[in-house]
Design goal:
Length: 180
């Protein structure tokens, strides 16, 4: 991995203590998006990892609602692939399949269009940040309903203390940056 590119991205992650509630240290990716060089570096690094790990075996990148939409299409373009949208319930037209999952404060649902892909196609799921892993796990289950093969989940940031990687397992997970 290109350390200079990684440092360019890392320098753009801001930390806000006690947001959105006391005791939480919020990791803000907004400056990465604001700076074209660091955003380009983040996409390049993720694409490089996926090329090394999977070669040309990926069919689609699936972006998670909503910040996965910021990285998914650019990553897909960099790899010469299409991008699928996994959305919150009620946001997609046409026939969909959905799955519900538990949040620390309630339940939520994700959905994807039934004709988004063919059985056996290989997908990589992308989001901006992995925290508890519930949303990413639900996305993997949703793709499984369509008989897709989830090759890996990737994100810009992983909050390791929340152990989301364990919830995503056995699907491999990769993050550019890890914070406690």
């Amino acid at each position: 991995m290109d350390e200079s590119q990684l440092q360019l991205v890392a320098r753009r992650i801001r930390s806000f203590p006690d947001f959105p509630s006391p005791g939480v240290l919020f990791r803000d990716i907004s400056p990465v998006l604001k700076d074209p060089d660091s955003f380009r570096a983040s996409i390049s690094l993720l694409a490089s990892h996926l090329k090394k790990t999977h070669g040309g075996k990926i069919d689609y990148i699936a972006g998670l609602d909503s910040r996965g939409f910021l990285f998914g299409p650019s990553l897909a373009q960099e790899l010469g692939l299409g991008c699928l949208l996994i959305r919150k319930r009620g946001k997609l037209p046409g026939p969909t399949v959905s799955t519900s999952y538990t949040l620390e404060y309630g339940k939520a649902e994700l959905e994807i269009q039934k004709d988004a892909l063919e059985p056996g196609q290989k997908v990589v799921v992308v989001d901006d940040l992995l925290a508890t892993g519930g949303t990413m796990r639900a996305a993997c289950e949703l793709l499984g309903q369509l008989q897709a093969e989830v090759l890996e989940c990737v994100s810009l940031v992983e909050l390791t203390s929340l152990r989301g990687r364990e919830k995503v397992a056995p699907v491999p997970f990769f993050a550019l940056l890890q914070y406690e």
